[in-house]
Amino acid sequence: MRSRLTEWVAIPSVAGMAEHVDDVRRSAEWLARLCAETGFPEVAVHPTGESSAVIARWPAEDPDAPVVLVYSHHDVRAAKAEEWTVTSPFQPVHREGRLYGRGASDAKAQVLAHLFSVAALREVTGGTPPVSLVLLIEGQEELGSPGLEDLIRDRLDGLRPDAVVFSDTLQWRAGEPAICTSVRGMLPIHLEVHGTEKDVHSGAVSGPAPNAGLVLAELLARLQDADGRILLPGFYDDVPEPTLERRAELAALGYTDEDWLRRTRTRAIRGEEGWSVLERLWERPALEVVGLLTGDPTGMPRAVIPSSASADLSIRTVPGQPIHAVARRMREFVEQHADPELEYVVDISEDSAQEGYRTPPSAALDALDAAVRAVHGVDEAGRMGNAGGGPAELLARLFDAPVVFFGTGLPEDHWHDSDESVDLDVVVRGAAVLARFWCSFADGAS
After folding, report:
1. Gap between the Cα atoms of 346 and 220, Å rounded
2. Three-class SS of residue 431?
3. Same domain for 174 and 295?
4. β-strands 304-305, 200-201: how paired?
5. Could you tell me the mean pLDDT of each successive run of 10 residues in the chain, 446 residues long?
6. Contact assessment for residue 139 and residue 28, using Cβ atoms and an 8 Å cutoff
7. Helix or strand run (H / E) with residue 130
8. pTM of the entire structure?
9. Which domain holds residue 318?
10. Pairwise CA distance, residues 391 & 357, whole Å
11. Are residues 44 and 153 in the same domain?
12. What CA–CA distances, in Å, run from 405 to 27, 219, 243, 441?
């Protein structure tokens, strides 16, 4: 597995960059070859805009066997090479049980866990998997999966899986098994403020001239109070409070502030008062500024009042909180607080937004729970959520099937950050869980 992952991570399949379109295609073709080598009789690479997805099918011998769709992705985030200290982003290296490189954990290792689970079963049984498998590995997840719905309608129309396995999530801790049962939604927002007609020398107009940077800062400050509560009017009307059972599940996980800060490199703890860190992370919405630009961010400062300022926001919603309602409230908020003499731009990407999702009780969840407990040798597996999003709600809606989550990442893997890495033991154990899961799910459905 290590050599395969090393080879794949070396392909810079960066989403959304023109110079990497061919690399994303190469990554898809590499995966397609491995699927065929593993034994999948039907494998195809499908262009999706400027990206490429892989769909592979392996029907079970038993025509009544359950059908499982596996979702993940092979595209990766861009990397700032100058911030990496262990290795360059696309020159993977192995250190102390971890493989470092962009996409190692998010999500190429997660895909390989599935392939190696099938290979292990084939080695033991000599036959086909006990469930009919369909792999859907897209190449635009890091862009918000803009082509996924069309791809499904064009290439998987008529597929009726009994369950969807979503593999683009984290585990809680190596050796402390916990099953993810929810993901938050995500709404990207771009804000702009235009003040002066052009950049103006501050020595000439400083004082009476509007400063776009300050105006934007004031607007952003109005979005959240000192206790971490989001101030969009009506924002919490659609936010369901976690049940007592859910709060107890999260409280049962092994957690300390010191351990959390060490694993995540976040230095301090902030957020909505009245909720634990894990509740803030998985059961409460959040608003983050992920980009902020004004003035002269590079080069020598010119001592000018900037004509414009922009901010990129990411609002993480919770299951049951409609994205469209949040988008409407943001537009109304900016309109309410806008200075009529200045110009504002509010660009909300609802097409690439993603709804939150919570896994319902199902035979698939029961089978996954049994597999996790068997492989880890525990009487009970914990429960957790995933702070990030993904197209889980879309998959559940299009296929009318429950989505269960199983990933092989950890918080300390540093997705989207410098020195991303993956714990190879976690991946191997993940493959073992998946092999058990296929068998448990097939047995439960028979």
Report:
1. 13
2. helix
3. no
4. antiparallel
5. 98 97 98 98 96 98 97 98 98 98 99 98 91 98 96 98 98 96 98 97 95 98 97 97 98 97 95 97 98 91 95 98 98 98 96 95 98 98 96 98 98 97 98 98 83
6. yes
7. none
8. 0.96
9. 186-239+285-352
10. 9
11. yes
12. 24, 37, 20, 14
